[in-house]
Automatic annotation (TrEMBL):
GO terms for molecular function: siRNA binding. GO terms for cellular component: nucleus. One of its GO terms (biological process) is regulatory ncRNA-mediated heterochromatin formation. Pfam families: Arb2. Residues 2-179 form the Arb2 domain. InterPro entries: Arb2, Arb2_dom. It comes from Colletotrichum spaethianum. This is Arb2 domain-containing protein.
Length: 308
């Protein structure tokens, strides 16, 4: 999910779907079924088929497959060789998972929880907005969790799906507020600069910058809500919340923010010196220009004194 975590503190388990699967394996499917829920992973990145290697690749490794020589420009994309039927693009892959894979692998009586991240969330939203998809899956979807989604409710057209969003969907966005701070009601929040037009209640993920880290850092509270809905059953309706508007600094706070007392009180020898790295020739040229300027100023002052 996040290479910045896989290659850093947390390692592979935390930065990949390993931690997600471990968290979900501790949940129960419903109030009457204590078994752990089944999990299907949609991989929207690896859609370039490598015939020689017999596996799918993401865009970057696809550019690194062996060439005939070092001077070859690369592989020409051949849809017949390098694309996977019904999975030619990330959106097509999401459609295939929802329209084909779920119907093939999931029992018809099972309820479905969908978690989308970034563009995956946008593609899932647009796929569920299709009448043919919603007619088949709509009555089976338990929850929809949109992490970092930027698809507006105004872009959707299928009314049954739009009515579902405020009842059983949540959006989690990048924000510095503590996790689960309600940022907007289903109608959005005009008092914040963040995008809150997803059509459902919007919460802070507490991840301030990276969408790919939302599920990693806040998976426990996100999955807790999914578990809550699973135990509540068909009668669940998302409760109304009071959105917390972001703090707007007063004029006094703005003024205080532009003047740092701590910096002012530091001794001069502690403050770092600032300068420019220039060549010795450029430095000599600057000295000449400064000398010319000083000479010109002195001549002007001399002439003004003579006139006086």
């Amino acid at each position: 999910m996040a290479l910045r975590v896989v290659n850093g503190p947390g390692g592979i388990n935390k930065g990949s779907m390993v931690s997600v699967v471990q968290e979900l394996s501790r949940q129960t499917s419903s109030s009457t079924d204590p078994s752990a829920p089944g999990i299907i992973l949609a991989n929207t990145g690896e859609l370039w088929w490598w015939p020689e290697g017999k596996k799918a690749l993401s865009p970057t490794p696809a550019l690194a497959v062996p060439q005939k020589s070092m001077v070859h420009h690369g592989r020409v994309f051949n849809p017949k060789l390098h694309s996977i039927s019904k999975n030619e693009s990330p959106e097509a892959h999401i459609q295939y998972v929802l329209n084909d894979v779920l119907l093939e692998l999931v029992p018809p009586t099972a309820r479905i929880d969908i978690v989308g991240i970034g563009l995956g969330a946008d593609h899932a939203t647009k796929t569920l907005d299709r009448p043919d998809t919603w007619t088949v899956l709509g009555h089976r979807i338990n929850t929809l969790s949109l992490l970092g989604s930027t698809t507006s409710i105004d872009e959707l057209s299928h009314e049954p799906f739009k009515e579902f969003l405020p009842r059983r969907a949540r959006a989690y966005i990048t924000d510095e507020a503590p996790v689960l701070t309600p940022l907007a009601q289903p109608g959005g929040n005009p008092n914040t600069a963040s995008f809150t037009q997803q059509g459902c209640t919007v919460y802070s993920s507490s991840e301030a910058y990276y969408v790919d880290c939302i599920l990693i850092n806040s998976r426990a509270p996100i999955f807790d809500w999914i578990q809550e809905v699973a135990l509540a059953g068909h009668d669940y309706h998302h409760p109304a919340v009071a959105a917390v508007d972001p703090h707007v600094p007063t004029d006094e706070e703005w003024a205080a923010g532009g003047f740092d007392e701590a910096w002012k009180n530091l001794p001069e020898f502690v403050k770092p010196s600032l300068g420019y790295a220039i060549s010795s020739e450029a430095h000599e040229h600057c000295n000449v220009l400064w000398g010319v300027q000083e000479f010109a100023e002195s001549q002007i002052m001399k002439q003004s004194e003579e006139h006086d």
